[in-house]
Request: fold
Amino acid sequence: MSDKTFLFDVRGIRCEGCAKKITDALVGHGFATKLDVDVQSGKVTIQGQPSTTAMSLKTEIEKLGFKVSKFETK
Reply:
C-alpha cells in the first residue's frame, strides 16, 4: 500500500521555526513520512502512512498551537 497525501491550510505559521515545530512533531512521532511547510501561504503537505487519517494529523497540528482551517486527502 502506498502513502497517502494530505493537504492542510494552517493558520499561525509565522516562521521557519514554526515549520520545524510541525515537521519535528509529525515526522518524529511517525505520523508523516515526508512533510513540506510553505511558511508564506500556511500550506502544509504531508505524506502519511496508509493507516494515517486526516483527523489524527489535524489533532496533532492543533496540539502544537496552530489552527487548521481546511484540509483534504489526495
User: Anything to note?
Assistant: The longest helix spans residues 16-28. The mean pLDDT is 94. The two ends are 14 Å apart (CA to CA). The chain has two helices and four strands.
